[in-house]
């Protein structure tokens, strides 16, 4: 699934986010221009472009491609009550769904979660993100094995587009609606206008 559906949704969502944040687009293009100087990016270039990585990670937080991660309990587990109710006893072989957007949108874990802020993933701030609250690829020993490939794939496409073009939304903002499914999909096509950069 990660090879197609998640990257196939993550790329247009990331471009959409860039169209809504002009300052992000400008800063990203500055990093791309400074790093590449007009040539094609290498694996090392994509790995070392910090702001590009931050933008992609923030896009995956705001527009998580998957709705949940599923886990099967190996043994009986007791979840402690968070209020006055009783503890919850879960039997072995119970399937647990971990709702990714619920954590990505929770202000306890991400300040102003509705705001697109790539600096959340800057080297000085990323260490403050609580474990397992940012999990677009799952977490733990069963994290998506293609995570690194998917991130490189997304970064490559975003880099190549922004190296040559400015991006603008070519549809009404209110028509951008995400339907929550196992893989979150845009209800309508995401229409983007590409304008050739002058430099």
Automatic annotation (TrEMBL):
Listed SUPFAM superfamilies: Cytochrome P450 (SSF48264)
This protein's UniProt keywords: Heme, Iron, Metal-binding, Monooxygenase, Oxidoreductase
GO molecular function terms listed in the Swiss-Prot or TrEMBL record: heme binding; iron ion binding; monooxygenase activity; oxidoreductase activity, acting on paired donors, with incorporation or reduction of molecular oxygen
PROSITE patterns membership: CYTOCHROME_P450
The protein's required cofactors: heme
Residues noted as binding heme in the record, renumbered to the chain: 144
Origin: domain of life: Eukaryota
Family: Belongs to the cytochrome P450 family.
Listed name of the protein: Cytochrome P450
Organism: Rhizophagus irregularis
